[in-house]
Structure formats: structure tokens, C-alpha cells
Design goal:
Elements: H1 6-20, H2 23-38, E1 56-58, E2 65-67, H3 68-72, E3 77-81, H4 88-106, E4 110-115, H5 119-129, E5 135-137, H6 142-146, E6 150-152, H7 155-163, H8 168-173, E7 186-188, E8 192-195, E9 201-205, H9 216-220
Parallel strand pairs: 3-4, 4-5
Antiparallel strand pairs: 1-2, 3-8, 6-7, 8-9
Length: 223
């Protein structure tokens, strides 16, 4: 099982990006991150001790709804929100949880990953990265909003994603840049939560800077 830090892997992605991407594009990304942090969104994330929203969302592999009530009837549940398969940080984090999944199952803990992507896009992620856990679709980041994670990318920052050929509206709704409503530009902070069977949060962490993620071992230490 991995013994290295997830953040070390993510920092390596950041270093490669800074070496390859034009300074003016990097500046746009840095400004967007700073503005999201300044919005106070981290302070709105559901804290430890709060009651998590219940949900029933479609699974990428089966198309059938997966219910939080059914999962929690079997024991604790880890819920991982991610932005999309287009994000290398998200993919790296999901692959880490893929590798750690046997440890969760040994402790009778279930895991689900949730994104605003269409079922088709989520299924691509499952197949390409060998994900052994349910990957669920949260259209418009409605559930993410209930956890305090949702935000809408403003028009200026949408042009940045267009410039790097990341089509978030297509991933989230199958629509083009020009025809997509604001809901297709809505994303979650990549948050990580541990729900007890009564839906009480035992772990809650999310960062406005999408290059920084909760360390899996911090959650695993609670199990």
C-alpha cells in the first residue's frame, strides 16, 4: 500500500504545470484561486459533528441510484467530492483512494466518489482508472452545495478553461461553452468526509486551492 504523501504527488503536478504553462495563464489561475479563498467558502463547509445531507445519486457503472441510507446501513461511509476527470489532481487523488480501498473494506467502511459530471463522463473515469468504488453523478452540484462545497466559475475564469481546452460544461451537461447555463459551470471544492451511520460527520476537510487535498492517512487514522 502507498506510504508516501498524496500532497507530494500533487505538488509534483504543480511543478510540472509551472514549467510548461505560460506565465499569463498561470496568473489567471492563481487569481481565481485567491478569489475563491477570499469568498469564505472554506468556512461554509459542513464541519465535524454536523449532520450530512442524505442522497440518492446515479452510479456511473449501473445507472441505478445509490442511496446514502442504504450505504450507511452497512457502516461508516467515506464521501469524496471531485471536480472532474479532466483535473489531474482529482485523478491522482482518486487513484490513491483506489489503492487504499482494500484498507477501507478491511475495516468495513464504504467509499463513494461524487462529481457533477454526466454518468458517461464518470464511467470513463471508472474504466480508465480502474476505480473499484461507486462514482456518482451530482448534476449542478446540488448535493455538493448541501455540504457547503459548491461554487460557480465566473465568466472571466471560464475563458481561462476554454484557453486550456477544458470543456467543463460538456463534462457536466453535454453542452458547449456557448449554450451551457451557469449550472454547468458549477463545481465542488474537492472535499473529503467521513460519515458515521447516523450521518454525523467524523471527518470534514476541503480547500479552496484545488491543488491541495486532504491527506488520506488523516482520515484512515480515525477508523
Amino acid at each position: 500500500m502507498p506510504s508516501y504523501l498524496l500532497q507530494d504527488q500533487l505538488d509534483a503536478i504543480t511543478a510540472r504545470t509551472r514549467a510548461l504553462v505560460q506565465p499569463e495563464r498561470l496568473a489567471l489561475s492563481e487569481t481565481a484561486t485567491a478569489e475563491l479563498f477570499a469568498s469564505g467558502i472554506e468556512g461554509r463547509v459542513l464541519p465535524v459533528g454536523a449532520s450530512a445531507p442524505s442522497f440518492a445519486l446515479d452510479d456511473a457503472s449501473t445507472g441505478r441510484p445509490v442511496s446514502s441510507a442504504d450505504l450507511l446501513a452497512l457502516g461508516p461511509l467515506v464521501v469524496k467530492f471531485f471536480r472532474g476527470r479532466w483535473d489531474p489532481y482529482c485523478v491522482t487523488e482518486l487513484e490513491r483512494w483506489r489503492d487504499l480501498h482494500p484498507r477501507l473494506r478491511q475495516k468495513h467502511v464504504l467509499f463513494v466518489a461524487i462529481s457533477p459530471q454526466t454518468r458517461r463522463q464518470n464511467d470513463f473515469a471508472v474504466q480508465q482508472h480502474g476505480l473499484p468504488f461507486p462514482v456518482l453523478s451530482d448534476p449542478g452540484s446540488v448535493l455538493a452545495a448541501g455540504f457547503g462545497l459548491a461554487h460557480t466559475i465566473p465568466p472571466r475564469d471560464r475563458r481561462y478553461y476554454q484557453s486550456i481546452l477544458v470543456n467543463i460544461p460538456f463534462a457536466n451537461s453535454g453542452l458547449s461553452y456557448d449554450t451551457a447555463p451557469d449550472s454547468a459551470w458549477r463545481l465542488p471544492l474537492p472535499g473529503l468526509f467521513l460519515l458515521q451511520p447516523d450521518r454525523t460527520l467524523a471527518f470534514s476537510k476541503a480547500f479552496a486551492d484545488s491543488r491541495v487535498r486532504p491527506e488520506p492517512e488523516d482520515l484512515l487514522a480515525l477508523l
